[in-house]
Amino acid sequence: MLFRSTLDGIFDIGYVIESANGCHDTAWGVIQVDYCHPIINFEKNALQLYPNPAMYSCTVVLPAELQTGDIYISNAIGQIVLHQNIKGNETILQLADLPAGSYSVMFLSTSYRATQQLIIVRE
Questions:
Q1: Residue 50 in contact with residue 59, Cβ under 8 Å?
Q2: In a domain? residue 23
């Protein structure tokens, strides 16, 4: 769930969580949103991943102007299964601990965000 606000500040939030068997509960909280610099660029396919499909490792190549940031790999249900801080515009991700499947790879820096799909296969 995503809530967007055009203002920074303190917000009261309430939510209801319901389990698969119909049980539910409510909760309330306070969230403080501090000013942050906006992401200037978003590119859906700016990451180069090879090989893709991959088996045990994958090389990530970023646009030449990017030198530092974070790579996040999330599985089909959105769980982050790998995080790696990178320096330079090319890095190798080790995938041996991840099961076969479809993943989303996201690069995030202070001013740039890019995503790409990655398929992991096993013999």
A1: yes
A2: no
